[in-house]
Design a protein that fits this description.
alpha/beta, Rossmann fold, 2 domains, seven-stranded parallel beta sheet, 14 helices
Length: 354
């Protein structure tokens, strides 16, 4: 089987969500079967096996993208997997595996600011109706996504008539710093963007009822958005904008008498939640279906529209016996996710359409 894996969404500096998903799944898959990786920059090679085969083509955001299949046909693959759904498939002479990660941007259609202007404009129009997505997914022989919650959303929207295979995300394994907890957890860590649906506002407002604790907002943030959020900080509350951290800094913060918090209104999976639970760090998270799929009984849940409820759940962790039991349940739950298991699910699904 000649299997191509679309690795063009891996970053060359540091991972974001889709970059890590691509790199981790691609490496796990390469342990099971020979894989040729599609890249758009030489720097992307560093994330994959040194002895792997690579084919360099245009970036996934290029205007050439609709004609990608015609470029790939000359290499005669049996199947092409993409961790996104937007790879061009018209005229293909191979089996295609497409991955709509979630339905978030239909509910929140604003595009990430780092994308080129023409992509952001097209993104907004694309997400005003289901029709373009339905047409694109007709270019797949196999559809995958990252959670059962996302699969249900896709089915409910009538995006495809094909079965949807869930190829789970999985946490990276942190091990550089031992996790420590004092009687009262003082640090609250949020790892996520500041797009409106991430709802960091609730976390900031909730600090009114959490004196003596510090909210750490880790991701990069623009000056305008930072100014908006700073106006919401309650009097005497401790809120730190880190404006981007490395994986090492992220792990060190989580290990330092901390809990992981997110008030997100929408997610495809929620990788920071799984990462925290894998470390033995308690997670206090939004009461939304996908987080229950990830966290089960190993996390605490709150109404994402109620800052006081967020604070109340954080305060429950002051009970040390309760906290230890929650951490144990979280660790058990997160062990159900692994890249090796996800790669096997993907490979079995691919074989089913060949």
């Amino acid at each position: 089987m000649k299997l191509f894996f679309d690795a063009r969404y891996t970053r060359t500096d540091y991972h974001d969500g889709i970059s890590r998903y691509s790199a981790e799944l691609g490496n796990a898959l390469a342990k099971l079967t020979p894989v040729t990786f599609l890249i758009s920059e030489d720097g992307q090679k560093k994330w994959f096996p040194s002895d792997a085969e690579f084919i360099k083509i245009h970036a996934g955001t290029s205007i050439k993208e609709p004609w990608t299949a015609r470029i790939l046909n000359k290499y005669k693959p049996d199947v092409v997997y993409s961790p996104m759904q937007t790879i061009g498939t018209k005229g293909r002479k191979y089996k295609s595996v497409l991955t709509p990660q979630d339905m978030i941007y239909y509910r929140h259609p604003k595009a990430p600011g780092f994308l080129p202007l023409h992509v952001r404009i097209g993104w907004w129009f694309y997400h005003q109706t289901y029709i373009p997505q339905r047409l694109i997914l007709k270019g797949g022989d196999l559809i995958t996504t990252v959670s059962h919650a996302s699969a249900k959303d896709l089915k409910d929207a009538g995006m495809t008539k094909l079965p949807i295979h869930v190829v789970y995300n999985a946490p990276q394994q942190f091990s550089k710093f031992p996790v420590t907890h004092e009687k009262i957890i003082k640090n609250i860590v949020f790892m996520g963007s500041f797009m409106p649906y991430k709802n960091s506002e609730t976390l900031i407002k909730g600090m009114e009822w959490l004196p003596g604790r510090t909210l750490h907002l880790l991701s990069r943030i623009g000056a305008k958005r930072k100014a908006e959020l700073e106006k919401m900080i309650p009097k005497d509350a401790q809120v730190i904008f880190h404006n981007g951290v490395s994986d090492v800094e992220y792990e060190k913060l989580l290990a330092s008498n901390a809990l992981l918090a997110t008030a997100s209104l929408d997610e495809g999976f929620g990788i920071p939640v799984a990462e925290a639970m894998a470390m033995g760090v308690p997670a206090v998270i939004s009461d939304i279906p996908v987080f229950h799929e990830v966290g089960a009984d190993g996390a605490l849940y709150f109404n994402p529209h109620d800052p006081k409820d967020f604070a109340k759940q954080v305060q429950k962790l002051d009970d040390i016996a309760f906290r230890k039991d929650l951490i144990k349940k979280g660790h058990t739950q997160v062990n159900t996710f692994s890249w090796d298991a996800s790669a096997k699910v993907l490979l079995d699904a691919i074989k089913s359409v060949l």
